[in-house]
Amino acid sequence: MTLTFQTKAQGPKVAYLFPGQGAQAVGMGKELYDNSAAAREVFDKVDESLGRSLTKVLFEGPEDDLRQTINAQPGIMAVSLACVKAMEENLDLDEMPQPIVMAGHSLGEYTALAVSGVLDVADTTKLVQMRGQLMQDACDQNPGTMAAILGLDQMALEEVARETGVWVSNINTAEQIVISGDRMGIAQAMDLAAARGAKKVIALRVGGAFHSGLMEPARAGLVEAIESMDFHNPTVPIVANCTGDPLNTADSIKEELVAQVSGCVQWKRSVDYMMGTGV
Q1: Which range of residues forms the domain containing residue 152?
Q2: Does residue 3 belong to any structural domain of this protein?
Q3: What pairing do the DSSP bridges indicate for beta strands 176-181 and 98-104?
Q4: Residues with catalytic roles
Q5: 38 three-state secondary structure
Q6: Residue from 212, 228, 226, 225 nearest 261 by CA
Q7: Parallel, antiparallel or unpaired: strands 200-203 and 145-150
Q8: What is the pLDDT of residues 65-122, one digit of tens each?
Q9: Count of domains in the chain?
Q10: What is the rounded CA–CA span in Å between residue 274 and residue 101?
Q11: Does one domain contain both 245 and 199?
């Protein structure tokens, strides 16, 4: 049976936002699984689509296994979808929030595909696992890392990136920006950013230089995977990570997903757009 999501509710108008990699924790989703039949159906569909028990890793760990990209990405997606289905199960149509836009941070953009009907849950799960594997392969080919820079504006940080050979990879707020690159370049960029007035520089515990040119080896395989699937126009606009603009067609979403794997996540621009819609 195909799982579908209710996007024509009659409750308050909202934006649905979905988290990215790094939000995982052992045990996440277990309470939903135990207490919501609708949520349990999501987890079972994800396990069936993967041909393995992802829920066992989610609920029992160990943490090192859950942190692996191939588990963390579909796991976070599964819990996000289960939350939406549990909400639908417990709220009447006139109480259910009505999403007028959706967005997801990196991986979260894929969760939005399922909720907005671009792909079904099974295909979204398969695509997320493929993306995770392609990104892991790119990390193995081009090792790297990431760092968060606080208190330095985008223009100044872009200059630091040019001088050290790294990439600006996530613009989360005006003064919370993430950079990606090889380990030596990131170390140099952190020192240079601190010298130029950054309030704080934080090395991130990640498996690679995500959303940077070092992820380019993942692009061809991702294009192939996307083209093998039947994409539909979204029932609700998805705000693109790379541009902060709303996407309303299957083709524009395909282009965004390919660009996003090695492109900068313009999260501030996305949030600014959503706030402008009145949510």
Answers
A1: 145-203
A2: no
A3: unpaired
A4: 106, 211
A5: helix
A6: 212
A7: antiparallel
A8: 998 888 999 999 999 999 999 999 999 888 999 999 999 999 999 999 999 999 999 9
A9: 2
A10: 7
A11: no
